[in-house]
Each structure stands twice: as C-alpha cells, then as structure tokens.
C-alpha cells in the first residue's frame, strides 16, 4: 500500500485544488469520528484522503474504467456517471495505490450512495464527506452534531437530506441510497423492539 505522502501527491496531481482540500478535510473529520467510535484511525485517514480520487475524471472515463473492469452499470449510473466516482475510486485505490483493505475500499466505493449494512468505517467516510468543515450547505451542522453522539441517526439524517436534495433537483436517485436508509431504519426499529 502506498504511504500517505504518495497518496497525497497522487490526489494533489489528479484533483482540482478545492477537491484536494476537501479530501484532506474529509480525512481529518474521519479521524475525529474514528476516535469517537473506537475505529482504526489509519484506515479512516487513508479512506478519507482517497475517497474522491476519481472525482475529476470525465463521465466517459468513469464509464470506461467501470466497464473495463467488467462492472455492469445500472441505468442510474449510466445516466449520471458521476455517481460512480466512488466505485471507480475504489478501483484506482486497489490497482494503483495498492490498497487491499476491504473496509477501506468499500468506504471509498459507497461514500456517495451508501448501501445496506454499512460498516462503521463506511458510515464514518459517508458522514465525513457530508459534514467536513469546508462544506457550506444547510443541514450540515445538525448532522455534524449527531455524528458525535449517534452515528446511525446521523447517517439516516444525511441520507434523508440527500434524498430530498436529489428529488428537488429532479435528478435520478440511486437505489443503494434507499436501501441504506431503509436498512438503518429497520435496524433502529429492531433494536428498539429488543
């Protein structure tokens, strides 16, 4: 696996400056949450830095890279290719940066859509991407506050805010986002019933 300097050099070279700063900020936020939730800080740091490594690729490049790796894209991904920058980023992380930790790769892969049964690290990267300090949109502060107290509730709110936003923009919503929300709500209800 590449060391942190090699990763920083790669993302600095391949991302716009604002996206590079965002990635560093996501990494710092992920470290903060990993500390709160007793997770591996190094994994959080690396996943945070790398999560957007494919963000500045053109739509055609994203689709080509996915299909070159025999990944069948659903209709939403074909119509909105930027949604797969996490998936393609996980390929770059594995094949270029030699990152083979499954939890880090899944955290990169699903940081945009979420999915059912996310690991704690996946939730941390998903949330960190949303709440890092350079983000300026409404709703971030409440998710940030909740993220330090109850990660699942914070992820649910983040997913719901994302769903509302995507609908308001009349854009296609990825099914994994719905699955992620429904899974977490079902788990919350199940735990309450126990």
Question: Can you summarize this structure?
Answer:
Residues 19-134 form the HD domain. By secondary structure, the chain is mainly α. It is built from 11 helices and no strands.
What is the end-to-end distance? Answer: 42 Å
**Name of the top-level CATH class:** Mainly Alpha
Radius of gyration: 16 Å
Total discrete domains:
1
Overall number of strands: 0
- Major sheet, described briefly? none
Q: Mean pLDDT, rounded to whole units?
A: 96
Strand residues, percent: under 5%
Order of helices and strands: HHHHHHHHHHH
CATH architecture: Orthogonal Bundle
Summing up helix and strand content along with how strands pair, one would put the structural category as mainly alpha
So what's the overall shape? globular
How does this structure look, described?
This is bis(5'-nucleosyl)-tetraphosphatase (symmetrical). Helices cover 68% and strands 0% of the residues. The chain is mainly alpha-helical. The chain has a single domain, classed as Hypothetical protein af1432 (Orthogonal Bundle).
Which helices and strands appear, and what pairs or packs with what?
Blueprint: H1 4-14, H2 17-36, H3 41-50, H4 59-68, H5 75-79, H6 85-95, H7 102-109, H8 120-131, H9 140-147, H10 151-168, H11 175-193
Helix pairs in contact: 2-3, 2-8, 3-7, 3-8, 6-7, 7-8, 8-10, 9-10, 10-11
């Amino acid at each position: 696996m590449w060391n942190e300097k090699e990763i920083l050099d790669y993302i600095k070279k391949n991302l716009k400056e604002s996206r590079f700063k965002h990635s560093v900020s996501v990494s710092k936020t992920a470290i903060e949450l990993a500390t709160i939730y007793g997770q591996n800080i190094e994994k959080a740091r690396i996943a945070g830095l790398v999560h957007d490594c494919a963000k500045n690729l053109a739509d055609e490049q994203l689709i080509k890279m996915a299909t070159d790796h025999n990944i069948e894209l659903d209709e939403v991904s074909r119509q909105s290719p930027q949604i797969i920058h996490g998936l393609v980023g996980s390929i770059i992380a594995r094949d270029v940066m030699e990152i083979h930790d499954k939890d880090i790769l899944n955290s990169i892969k699903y940081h945009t859509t979420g999915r059912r049964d996310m690991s704690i690290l996946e939730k941390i990267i998903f949330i960190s991407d949303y709440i890092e300090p350079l983000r300026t949109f409404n709703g971030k502060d409440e998710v940030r506050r909740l993220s330090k107290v109850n990660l699942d509730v914070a992820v649910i709110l983040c997913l719901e805010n994302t769903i509302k936003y995507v609908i308001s923009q009349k854009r296609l919503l990825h099914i994994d986002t719905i699955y992620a929300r429904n899974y977490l709500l079902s788990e919350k209800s199940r735990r309450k019933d126990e």
